[in-house]
Model the fold of this input.
Amino acid sequence: MDDRELLAHFESLTLPLAQWTHRAHVKVAFLYLREHGFEEALRRLRSGIQSYNAANNVPDTPTSGYNETTTHAFLHLIHATMRAYGELVPTPDAESFCDAHPQLQHRHVLRLFYSTQRRMHPAAKTRFVGPDLAPLPRVL
Done:
Protein backbone atom coordinates (compact mmCIF):
# COMPACT_ATOMS: atom_id res chain seq x y z
CA MET A 1 0.00 0.00 0.00
CA ASP A 2 1.46 3.37 -0.97
CA ASP A 3 1.43 6.52 1.19
CA ARG A 4 -1.73 7.96 -0.37
CA GLU A 5 -3.62 4.71 0.16
CA LEU A 6 -2.41 4.34 3.75
CA LEU A 7 -3.60 7.84 4.68
CA ALA A 8 -6.89 7.38 2.85
CA HIS A 9 -7.60 4.10 4.67
CA PHE A 10 -6.50 5.53 8.03
CA GLU A 11 -8.53 8.71 7.68
CA SER A 12 -11.63 6.90 6.37
CA LEU A 13 -11.29 4.38 9.23
CA THR A 14 -11.13 1.48 6.75
CA LEU A 15 -7.58 0.33 7.50
CA PRO A 16 -7.85 -3.22 8.86
CA LEU A 17 -6.96 -3.28 12.56
CA ALA A 18 -4.29 -5.94 11.91
CA GLN A 19 -2.52 -3.41 9.64
CA TRP A 20 -2.51 -0.62 12.27
CA THR A 21 0.93 -1.61 13.50
CA HIS A 22 3.63 0.48 15.14
CA ARG A 23 5.24 0.88 11.70
CA ALA A 24 1.93 2.18 10.31
CA HIS A 25 1.78 4.70 13.19
CA VAL A 26 5.28 5.92 12.28
CA LYS A 27 4.37 6.15 8.59
CA VAL A 28 1.22 8.19 9.23
CA ALA A 29 3.12 10.49 11.60
CA PHE A 30 5.85 10.97 8.97
CA LEU A 31 3.27 11.76 6.30
CA TYR A 32 1.52 14.33 8.47
CA LEU A 33 4.81 15.97 9.44
CA ARG A 34 5.93 16.07 5.81
CA GLU A 35 2.83 18.09 4.91
CA HIS A 36 2.14 20.08 8.09
CA GLY A 37 3.88 21.76 10.99
CA PHE A 38 4.26 19.87 14.26
CA GLU A 39 1.10 21.24 15.94
CA GLU A 40 -1.15 20.48 12.96
CA ALA A 41 0.43 17.04 12.52
CA LEU A 42 -0.19 16.35 16.21
CA ARG A 43 -3.80 17.52 15.94
CA ARG A 44 -4.43 15.28 12.91
CA LEU A 45 -2.65 12.29 14.44
CA ARG A 46 -4.45 12.65 17.78
CA SER A 47 -7.86 13.00 16.16
CA GLY A 48 -7.16 10.20 13.70
CA ILE A 49 -6.01 7.70 16.33
CA GLN A 50 -8.92 8.51 18.63
CA SER A 51 -11.43 8.11 15.78
CA TYR A 52 -9.73 4.96 14.52
CA ASN A 53 -9.72 3.42 18.00
CA ALA A 54 -13.40 4.24 18.49
CA ALA A 55 -14.32 2.77 15.09
CA ASN A 56 -12.46 -0.42 15.97
CA ASN A 57 -13.77 -0.71 19.54
CA VAL A 58 -10.28 -0.44 21.03
CA PRO A 59 -10.86 -0.32 24.79
CA ASP A 60 -9.72 2.86 26.51
CA THR A 61 -8.28 1.64 29.79
CA PRO A 62 -5.38 2.84 31.93
CA THR A 63 -3.02 0.63 29.90
CA SER A 64 -4.63 0.64 26.44
CA GLY A 65 -6.24 3.02 24.02
CA TYR A 66 -5.10 6.51 23.18
CA ASN A 67 -2.25 8.02 25.21
CA GLU A 68 -1.45 11.71 24.58
CA THR A 69 2.06 11.50 26.01
CA THR A 70 2.99 8.49 23.88
CA THR A 71 1.60 10.07 20.70
CA HIS A 72 3.19 13.46 21.36
CA ALA A 73 6.59 12.04 22.34
CA PHE A 74 6.75 9.65 19.36
CA LEU A 75 5.76 12.44 16.98
CA HIS A 76 8.51 14.57 18.52
CA LEU A 77 11.09 11.79 17.91
CA ILE A 78 9.95 11.40 14.30
CA HIS A 79 10.03 15.17 13.78
CA ALA A 80 13.53 15.46 15.29
CA THR A 81 14.72 12.59 13.06
CA MET A 82 13.22 14.18 9.94
CA ARG A 83 14.85 17.52 10.71
CA ALA A 84 18.23 16.03 11.64
CA TYR A 85 18.53 13.59 8.73
CA GLY A 86 16.13 14.88 6.09
CA GLU A 87 18.76 16.65 4.03
CA LEU A 88 21.32 13.87 4.42
CA VAL A 89 19.04 10.92 3.77
CA PRO A 90 16.26 11.94 1.36
CA THR A 91 13.17 9.86 1.95
CA PRO A 92 10.69 9.86 -0.91
CA ASP A 93 8.04 7.92 0.98
CA ALA A 94 7.06 6.63 4.39
CA GLU A 95 8.40 3.13 3.72
CA SER A 96 11.84 4.52 2.87
CA PHE A 97 11.75 6.71 5.98
CA CYS A 98 11.01 3.69 8.17
CA ASP A 99 13.76 1.67 6.51
CA ALA A 100 16.28 4.50 6.94
CA HIS A 101 15.48 4.96 10.65
CA PRO A 102 15.15 1.56 12.32
CA GLN A 103 15.55 3.17 15.77
CA LEU A 104 11.98 4.45 15.39
CA GLN A 105 10.65 0.95 14.71
CA HIS A 106 11.02 -0.13 18.32
CA ARG A 107 7.81 0.52 20.24
CA HIS A 108 9.79 0.69 23.44
CA VAL A 109 12.19 3.48 22.41
CA LEU A 110 10.32 5.82 24.77
CA ARG A 111 11.79 3.80 27.65
CA LEU A 112 14.97 5.80 27.06
CA PHE A 113 13.08 8.95 28.06
CA TYR A 114 10.22 7.84 30.32
CA SER A 115 9.79 5.53 33.26
CA THR A 116 6.76 3.28 32.91
CA GLN A 117 5.18 4.97 35.90
CA ARG A 118 5.40 8.41 34.29
CA ARG A 119 4.25 7.47 30.78
CA MET A 120 1.41 5.28 32.03
CA HIS A 121 0.24 7.70 34.72
CA PRO A 122 -3.46 8.55 34.27
CA ALA A 123 -2.58 12.22 33.59
CA ALA A 124 -0.27 11.16 30.71
CA LYS A 125 -3.22 9.63 28.84
CA THR A 126 -5.02 12.96 28.45
CA ARG A 127 -2.20 15.55 28.32
CA PHE A 128 1.45 15.61 27.34
CA VAL A 129 3.73 14.89 30.28
CA GLY A 130 7.44 15.55 29.78
CA PRO A 131 10.00 12.78 30.22
CA ASP A 132 11.56 11.95 33.58
CA LEU A 133 14.65 9.95 32.53
CA ALA A 134 16.20 12.01 29.72
CA PRO A 135 15.08 14.99 27.64
CA LEU A 136 13.60 14.39 24.21
CA PRO A 137 16.03 15.36 21.44
CA ARG A 138 16.13 18.95 20.27
CA VAL A 139 14.44 19.59 16.95
CA LEU A 140 16.99 21.33 14.72
Summary: The chain has seven helices and no strands. The chain has a mean pLDDT of 94.
